[in-house]
Amino acid sequence: MTWTFERVFYGSKDGLNLRSMRDFLMRGYYLIPHTLFNGYYRAVNRVGDYESIYTRVKKPFPDLLLAQRPEGRFALHLSGGFDSSILAKLYDRQDVDYIHFTGPESVKARALAATLKGTLHEIQIRPELYIEAADEFVSRLPEPYAFEDIVYAYLASKKAKELGHTLVMSGDGGDDLFGGSDIGPYSRKACIVWKTIDPNQLLGLTTLQPYMHTGLYAWAGSTLGPKEAGFDKVFAAQYCRQLGMPEAVCAQKKGFWAGSHGIRTNEQVLGHLAGVVDGSDYSWIKEFEFPQRPSADFPFRQYGLARWLEVNYKERLDAGEIREFSRQVREFNAMEEKIASALRLKETIKWYFPPAAISLGRRVRRWIRKGQTE
Question: Is residue 22 part of a domain?
C-alpha cells in the first residue's frame, strides 16, 4: 500500500477570483486555501498508509525511503538527476520500467540504467506530441498547473500504462529535500505535488512520491547544513557515490531544469499556445500587468488557464461579460500599481531616512524640548 495527497474543495463558487488568476499567471500558484473562484476554497490531505511508515523504520534517512519501496511492479519517471536516480538505485528490480525523455540528461540516465536490473524506455519528445498531449488533458485537471513539466509527466505515465503498470513513482519533492526549490507539498504554495498526481489520476494510475514524506523534511531541516542542502545538492551527490552510482550521475552539477528539450522556445508550440488564448473568450487574461514578466512557462500558463476556464467555468462568454472582465482587470491593475507605488515610496523614504536615524532624531527633539522647559 502507498500514500498520497488529495485535495478537498469546499464552499460555493461566486465568480472568478482575479487575484488568484493574476497570482497564477505571475508566480505559478495561488496560496492555499484560495482557488480561482470567489467563495470556493481548498485543503490538502494525506491519504493511505502515511503514519504506519514510522513503524517500519529506525532512523529517518534512508529508512523512510526504503520503507516506501513498493512490493509489486511499478514504473519510475527517471530524469537522470540526483533525485530519481537515488530512487532507481534503492528500489531497483527486474520488473521495474524506467521512463526517460531523450535529451540533455540522457547520458546520465543511460549510464545508470546500465547498472540496474530494470528496463530503460526512452521517449523522443516532438512539438506535435507535446501539443497533442497538452490539448488532451490540461482542461481536465482539477486545477490549472503552471509549468510545462506536467505534460512530460502525463506522457511518461501514459507510457507506464501502456507497459501494464498501475503504480507510477517520481522524484517529485527531491529539490525541496536536498536543495534547489521551495514549492513543495508543505508550503502554502503546494503546487509541485500535483505534477504527477493529477495526470496519473486522469489515467487511472496510483502515484508514489517517496520524497514528499514530512519525516524526511524534518530530517533534512535539522541535519543538512546550508552547503549540503544548497543548490548544488552536495549531500545528494555524496549519497549517490555511497550507493556506487556511475560517475556521470555523481559528478553532475545541479542546473536549471533541462527537460524542456527546446519546447519552451519552439515556434510551433508557442504559436499553438498563443493561438488557443487568442481564439478563446478569455484573451482578456493577457491584459493582466506584472512588475516584471513571469518565467519561461508564462505562455503555457496563459494557454492552460484559458483552456481550463473554457471547460470548468464557461466555454463561451457573451460580449458584455468579456467587456466587464476586461474592465475589472484594468481596475485591478490600477489598484495593484497604486499599492506598488506606495510601497516604492515607503522604501525610498526608508532609504533616505532609516528608522534608526528617525528614532535618534525624535530622541534629540525630546531632549531639546526638555531642556527648554527647564
Answer: no
Q: Does some domain include residue 355?
A: yes
By C-alpha distance, which of 179, 246, 114, 209 is closest to 100?
A: 114
pLDDT bucket at 183, cuts 50 / 70 / 90 = very low
Single out the residue of 239, 214, 236, 216 nearest to residue 227, CA to CA: 236
How far, in Å, CA of 19 to CA of 25, rounded?
A: 10
Place of cell 532507481: 88
For position 114, which CATH number holds?
3.40.50.620
- For residue range 20-73, list pLDDT tens digits in order: 999 999 999 999 999 999 999 999 999 999 999 999 999 999 999 999 999 999
What is the domain count for the chain?
Answer: 2
Distance CA 120, CA 91 (A): 14
Q: pTM above the 0.85 mark?
A: yes
User: What nine digits make up the cell of 51?
Assistant: 503514519
**What does the block give as the cell for 43?**
485543503
- Quote the domain boundaries for residue 120: 49-250
Boundary (domain end) residue, out of 231, 250, 269:
250
Taking alpha carbons only, the member of 129, 142, 145, 140 closest to residue 305 is 145
Model pLDDT for residues 72-110, shown as the tens digit of each residue? 999 999 999 999 999 999 999 999 999 999 998 899 999
Per the domain annotation, does 54 fall within a domain? yes
Distance CA 349, CA 347 (A): 5
Those residues whose C-beta lies under 8 Å from the C-beta of residue 123, and which sit 6 or more positions away, are 99, 100, 101, 102, 155, 156, 159
Last residue of a domain, one of 197, 217, 250: 250
Among 150, 246, 257, 254, which residue's Cα sits nearest to residue 196? 150
C-alpha Rg value of the chain to the nearest Å: 25
Q: How far is CA 306 from CA 73, 77, 225, 274, 299, in A?
A: 38, 28, 42, 10, 11
Average confidence score pLDDT of the chain? 90
